């Protein structure tokens, strides 16, 4: 057991520089290097931390059930609690309490969206932002492809490194100059996404408080006023457009905004320049580690586009459920958004644990980024400060958290004391007031599974 713990902690520590929390990102120094990124370096990623072992003996059901049942009675969790523990190798439900009843999942919804994104888009797909020629030689269109990580500046220490709007402007300027053009009128196209920019089921305060930006296909720094800020701009598309125009001027092209700036670029328009996001597997890792609402909403809409659905809240929800249905994982899942801010979402604990199990299975390597992206107990993301009273399982639990008013959830994976790879989902959506108490109760439940 000691060897296992040391090995897992070593792997976590070795990869820790890849998983950057919000607090670290705020403090990261800004690079003043060239906006043109260096040639990509092939990345070889290790398998999920907990995948090295997983076929040990099953935990004793009676002991596991007794300890979990007692812990589920913690008054900090309230009186609407669901729980499920699933064996990865066989898919068997090892423990269930209200396991098939839908519970408000909060941000654990991101697990469902991430599984669907990897299954539908593939782990190596990217999201492009392009510039195309307009109807006249001296007009161009900035076309949003739906990459919310597109950044206004390079910041060291961020994983994955985002595409840079400055790089797109520089490539555009070079292409225009090569064609003998030094002055252009610029418009933009953000029409890839349709429908309302905020969900009807979201609370009105989510955007003003900085939990999420209005969802658009053209966005810079996730709609934030600046990288690391929580404050959001009112119109992410127009902000990205204005910033792009300013960058063109810096690179020697006189760029003029159009009076009717928002247009629909012709499908056959010639591409002048483009930049691409990090691969989907890395975007999923970032979305789960940081519980990134903007990025997860974008991934849901990319699934909608791939599945032939409207790139709207409704279309994205239908597409995600459609993909999960093909995988026989949709039972017990009902969603109205991709990120989990909607209080109307419902996911049964057994369904959530099975989603994590599918992502953990050796037969599904294309889904493993769901596991590698989950925060690690005591080390990264939203679990970096958790498990204080259960520090013996630091590095042994990977899980996605979920938090809304009156809602706390935890879903992830661990290896039992006997070496069995299992997944779990613990969900409570009538949590009484008392900040942190429900989180501690959920941590205790996960620790019980790890020690079983």
Shape: elongated
The CATH superfamily label of the largest domain reads DD-peptidase/beta-lactamase superfamily
Strand order of the largest sheet: 2-1-12-11-10
Rg result: 23 Å
Low-confidence stretches: 1-34, 43-52
- Give the end-to-end Cα distance, rounded to a whole number of Å: 13 Å
SSE layout:
Layout: H1 2-15, H2 22-27, H3 61-72, E1 81-87, E2 93-97, H4 109-121, E3 128-133, E4 139-143, H5 165-178, E5 183-189, H6 236-250, E6 254-262, E7 271-276, H7 280-289, H8 293-306, H9 313-326, E8 333-334, E9 346-347, H10 349-360, H11 369-373, E10 397-404, E11 407-415, E12 421-428, H12 437-451
Parallel strand pairs: 4-5, 5-6
Antiparallel strand pairs: 1-2, 1-12, 3-4, 3-7, 8-9, 10-11, 11-12
Helix pairs in contact: 3-12, 4-7, 4-8, 4-9, 5-6, 7-8, 8-9
Describe the protein.
- The chain has 452 residues and is α+β, with helices and mostly antiparallel strands.
- It has two domains: 45-123 and 282-451, Beta-lactamase (3-Layer(aba) Sandwich); 128-278, D-tyrosyl-trna(Tyr) Deacylase, Chain: A (3-Layer(bba) Sandwich).
- 32% of the residues lie in helices and 16% in strands.
- The chain has twelve helices and twelve strands.
- It has helices spanning 2-15, 22-27, 61-72, 109-121, 165-178, 236-250, 280-289, 293-306, 313-326, 349-360, 369-373, 437-451, and strands at 81-87, 93-97, 128-133, 139-143, 183-189, 254-262, 271-276, 333-334, 346-347, 397-404, 407-415, 421-428.
- The strands form three sheets. The protein has a five-stranded antiparallel sheet with strand order 2-1-12-11-10, with helices on both faces.
- It starts with a helix and ends with a helix.
């Amino acid at each position: 057991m000691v060897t296992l713990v040391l090995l897992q902690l070593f792997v976590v520590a070795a990869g820790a520089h890849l998983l950057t929390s919000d607090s670290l990102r705020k403090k990261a120094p800004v690079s003043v290097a060239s906006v043109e990124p260096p040639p990509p370096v092939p990345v070889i990623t290790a398998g999920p931390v907990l995948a090295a072992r997983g076929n040990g003996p099953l935990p004793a059901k009676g002991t596991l059930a007794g300890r979990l049942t007692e812990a589920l009675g913690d008054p900090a969790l309230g009186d609407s609690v669901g729980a499920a523990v699933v064996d990865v190798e066989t898919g068997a439900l090892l423990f269930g309490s209200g396991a098939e009843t839908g519970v408000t999942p909060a941000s654990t919804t991101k697990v469902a969206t991430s599984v669907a994104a990897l299954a539908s888009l593939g782990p190596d797909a990217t999201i492009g932002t392009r510039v195309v020629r307009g109807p006249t030689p001296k007009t161009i269109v900035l076309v949003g492809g739906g990459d919310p990580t597109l950044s206004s500046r390079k910041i060291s220490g961020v994983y994955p490194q985002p595409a840079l709007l400055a790089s797109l402007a520089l490539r555009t300027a070079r292409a225009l100059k090569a064609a003998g053009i030094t002055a252009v009128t610029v418009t933009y196209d953000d029409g890839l996404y349709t429908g309302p920019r905020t969900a009807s089921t979201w609370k009105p305060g989510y955007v003003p408080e900085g939990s999420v930006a209005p969802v658009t296909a053209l966005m810079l720094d996730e709609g934030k006023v600046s990288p690391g800020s929580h404050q959001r701009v009112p119109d992410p598309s127009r902000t990205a457009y204005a910033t792009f125009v300013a960058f063109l001027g810096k690179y020697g092209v006189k760029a003029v905004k159009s009076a009717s700036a928002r247009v629909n670029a012709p499908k056959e328009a010639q591409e002048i320049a483009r930049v691409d996001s990090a691969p989907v597997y890395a975007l999923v890792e970032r979305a789960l580690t940081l519980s990134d609402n903007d990025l997860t909403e974008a991934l849901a809409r990319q699934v909608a586009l791939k599945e032939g659905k409207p790139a709207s809240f409704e279309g994205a929800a239908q597409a995600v459920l459609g993909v999960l249905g093909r995988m026989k994982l949709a039972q017990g899942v009902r969603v109205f958004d991709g990120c989990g801010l909607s209080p109307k979402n419902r996911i049964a604990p057994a369904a959530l644990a099975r989603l994590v199990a599918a992502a953990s299975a050796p037969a599904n390597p294309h889904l493993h980024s769901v596991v590698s992206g989950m925060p690690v107990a005591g080390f990264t993301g939203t679990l970096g400060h958790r498990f204080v009273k259960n520090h013996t399982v630091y590095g042994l639990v990977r899980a996605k958290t979920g938090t809304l008013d009156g809602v706390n959830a935890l879903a992830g994976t661990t290896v039992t004391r006997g070496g069995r790879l299992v997944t779990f989902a613990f969900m409570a959506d009538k949590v009484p007031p008392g900040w942190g108490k429900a989180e501690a109760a959920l941590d205790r439940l996960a620790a019980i599974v790890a020690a079983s």
